[in-house]
# Entry
Amino acid sequence: MTKRIHLLLITLFTIIGGTTFSKTIDSLTIYPNPFITSTTIHFDLVKSDTITLQVFNSLGQTMRTFYQSTVLPMGSYHMNLNGDSLVEGIYYVKLDIGATNSIVKKALKVRTTSVVENNKLDHKLIIFPNPTNDHITIPIKGNKTIIVADLHGKMVKSFTTDQQVISILDIAAGQYLITILNNENELLTSQKIIKVE
# Structure
């Protein structure tokens, strides 16, 4: 009964408030990302549908369930993911819309946005050149996950590689936070870089 009232209030607020919704595709964003204590999960629905919104750890275990087979009207939704009880690492936010549409995004929980104090690597680990226009060098051998986020926390790019020289030609000019994780998804470093044209 309370779910029906909640949905009715959302619908009435949308109609009375004159809120227009012009999205043409369902979407899911996480901001800020990487995050230290909390992040906002934002999603848009282009039509009323049954949704499930869950957060999983890298082992596939469910960490949070925001909605479970819940019918929501068309609109924009914001949920706060409190990360105080989450350990550092990669999390997956999964939005199931209806029976056929799923959107999955990565979220990175970190302890801090600077180099980890007890880093097993040399404390002189520097991503260079900085500023740069076409590539960065990450002096870490072996596989590593690299996450590029803008300074608002929006993830721009995320990938795993064993390369040390990384092309950033596909990223627009601006300032970015580069976060590097090892094979166990432990934070190695986060550094701000400047991409110039």
The chain has two domains: 2-109, 135-195. The domain at 2-109 is CATH 2.60.40.2550 (Immunoglobulin-like).
